[in-house]
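Researcher: Next entry: Macrophage erythroblast attacher (Salpingoeca rosetta).
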Amino acid sequence: MSSQDTTRQLFTEIGCLEHPFMKASVDEVVRVSKSCQKLIDTEMVSIIKAFDELAGSSDVSAAVVDARLAAMQTQIEQLEDQMQEIRQAESEVFEMCAARVQHLQNAETMSADLWKQLRVNRFLADYLLRNGLYDTAEKLAAVPALASLINVPLFQEVRALEQHIRNREFEPVLVWHARHEQRLRRLGSTLLFKLELQVFIELIRKDERAEALAYARTAFPKHAQQHMDTINKAVGVLVFPQQHASQELLSEERLEDLVQQLRRNNFALHSLTAQSVFDATLQIGVSAFKTVHCGNPNTALSTCPTCSKDMQPLAAKMPYSVQTTSKLYCRISNARMDEHNPPYMLPNGQVYSEQALRSMQETNGHITCPETHNTFHMSECKRVYIV
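Model: Predicted structure:
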């Protein structure tokens, strides 16, 4: 294979895994740019309208004119301050995007092992952040080579919101939702309903039933068409708090469910996939190694990743790999069996490599099978030919 073909194959493989990595940063650039344009349009319309009203007024005193001009000047100065903040955010987003592009381009020029290790560390940091292991992830992401490749602040905001949910403080989360309400609605999110439902439930838990009923009248009507059954059950808790359905709504597990949904919605808002790349690549790797013999105590190999105790739960859910050619390995020596180390079958049907059998051979030529503990002479072993 030519170097050009190798490079093309490398970037094809990278593209499959790294598309979300780049898409998230590009979408962030677009979002910041749109926010900037929206701010300019809104504020400038307001300023121009105020100026036109002032220009069209003929009977306005000098003091009023000065006051209105001062107000417009203040508004313009505030706009400048906001623009400065947005420019700073734009600069940071562009730097992040450029760093990610450079990181992918380095795959062609950097040492392959070094680049792959850097990418694995990035996958790990992303996985840790997604699963709430923030302290560990932040330590890993603090490495200079990784700092610009992982958007830690994106997760830090949600980390604080998660703690508010666990503390039953829902107002900050509702404020966050209001800030992203339009986009969350387009995504079909039900987070707002579940947050308001939980506020209602917490009022009942504190036995503030009058406040709970008043809150329900305010919050639930807009959700009635889509969530009427759940609303009926929730209101029923006011009357029958000991019923089975009530216990389900009062369950402590609902808080953790809210945390998980908040994370998923945050991923969607920032164009992050629901599943981490670390999960996806691990599953692909496990599936590539998995055969029908994996997990069977009689045929498992200590060097096989899918046969290991830690991997078996994950491997059980994965499909078998498609192999056009097979490679046989000895269960004793873990060495490959081929024409230089052919497989031999004992009379009891167990197959091992020639080298392993020679190493087990006693001075009198006898071999004890490690599986059945039967003893045979080396001359009784027959070579196996794979067609």
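Model: Note for the record: The beta strands are 328-329, 336-337, 343-345, 351-353, 366-368, 375-377, 382-383.
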